[in-house]
Structures are given as C-alpha cells and as structure tokens.
Amino acid sequence: MDQPENNPSQAVLTSEPNAPGAASTVMEARSLKKIYGSGEKSLAVLSDANLSLRQGEMVAIVAPSGAGKSTLLHLLAALDTPTSGTVYFANKAIETNDDDAALAEFRNRAVGFLWQRHQLLPDFTAAENVAMPLLLRGEDFTSALGMARKWLAEVGLENRADHRAGELSGGEQQRVAIARALVTGPTVLLADEPTGDLDEQNAWAVFELLERLHRTLGLTSLIATHNLALAARCDRILGLEHGVLQTRGAAASASKAPGGEAS
Ligand SMILES: Nc1ncnc2c1ncn2[C@@H]1O[C@H](COP(=O)(O)OP(=O)(O)O)[C@@H](O)[C@H]1O
Ligand SMILES: [Mg+2]
Predict the structure, then answer these.
(1) Strands 236-241 and 84-89: what pairing?
(2) Of 31, 94, 172, 238, which residue is most buried, by most CB within 10 angstroms?
(3) Top mutation candidate among 33, 40, 45 for ligand 1, by most atoms within 8 Å of CB
C-alpha cells in the first residue's frame, strides 16, 4: 500500500519562539487546564496536564472513567479548546481560535482520531466511511474510494468494503474506524478506548492491528484504555489523577521503548 504522506500540517500553526526542545518531539502539551462550565457548576477536569510524545512512541493512558482521558485527547486533537495551556505539534503552538478552515486542515492531516464509540455513519458503506476524510479535504470521489478500499484491505476487511457500516460486527466497525483514522496519513494517532466496547478476543485483535500499523507506518500513538494488559504492551503508561498526568510505568520491551520521561 502507498505510504501516507507524513507531513505535519502547517496551516494553523503559528511561530512559537519558546518552542519546546528536541526535534523528535512530535506533540507536546504544556500546563493544560480544562474547566467545564462556570461558577458553582464548574468542573475542573484537567488542572496541569503535561505531556511530551516523541516520534515513534506508543503511549497508554490508564485512568478511571471520568478522570479526563477523552477531554485530554480532544484537546490534543484540537477538537476542543483548553481553558489555559498550550498544545504543540511539530514544535508549533496550535491555535484553536484560528479560522475554521485552517483548523479543519490540521485535524484532517496531522492527527488520526479513534473515537470511544467508532462514530461511523451506519447507512454508508465501509468504503464510503473510510473515504469521508478524503472527500472532506476535497479529493475526488473515485480516488478517495480507491484509497479507502486499500485501507480496508490493510485492516483485513476488503470483503466488507460495500457493506453498510451498521451491518458490521463491533470488531469490524472498529477496524473500519481505524482505516478511516489513518487514510489521511496522519503523524499522530489518538485513540480513545479503542477496544472498550469489544470482547476480549476482538480487543486483542484490534490492539494487535493498531500495534502493527503503529510500527509499519512510523506513527506516534497515544491510547486511552482501561485494559492494563493492553497498556502493558505500550512503550510507557501514564496515569491521570486529579487533572495531572503522571508516569505509571515503563511497559513493553526495552527494544521497543524510546525511553524518557512521562510528562
Ligand atoms: N462537555 C462537557 N461539559 C461538562 N462536563 C463534561 C464535558 N465533557 C466531559 N465532562 C465531564 O468531565 C469529566 C471527565 O470526562 P472525560 O474526559 O470524558 O473522562 P474519561 O474519558 O476519562 O472517562 C467527567 O466528569 C465528565 O462528566
Ligand atoms: Mg472517555
């Protein structure tokens, strides 16, 4: 299959004079705070979340429901705006108040997002669902569909390309969602409990697929999960407690682990 282009989107990135450190840092969050609501009803979910993702790392976030995992992933993907703090991509600050078109470009090209619930359009075919991000960025229907079919083959679903998404099993739907997240050739994969709704066997199969794609595509991946056995396969594990990220352990084999600090 064609290697996806791995060029970070520059569209919404402004110059950051104090851009953080190493060239191999792909994505960074500094002092992220997220407070939902205001006044007495306000809820502080992230208080001071710091994170540095280096090229090629596969990092797990393990924390209980309600700890703020989805909130953090949404902020990293520029799907939501932090109350304060900054997300950097390729050492440039992401300006979520930039114009919509530029931001859509960033979301479409830099980051692949796997939703907690796959968020496929049930009445569209698997191929149409996978083609959707390409259509949104203006590619023509025939080439987008062609690319979608290649990606469905890559996740083992070439025989399901013309089936409606709503007719597929949970594991198949998550594979379609993986193809849709990667069809744009993102640099970073953010996965929000990608195996949360699957039985154990399907969870392992989907995780192994993610691991393989992570490695072969040279992705940088951050995966929220409740599953400690799956998290242990990642290069390192972060916890999220009281709105702060901390190291829970270096997992996986030494040969895989790029090493380094957690936040
Ligand atoms: N849009 C929102 N408005 C208000 N509260 C929210 C919103 N989104 C999430 N929350 C609350 O923030 C907390 C963290 O949610 P979330 O990030 O979804 O946690 P997790 O993914 O770890 O389960 C929860 O208490 C949740 O109810
Ligand atoms: Mg969540």
Answers:
(1) unpaired
(2) 94
(3) 45
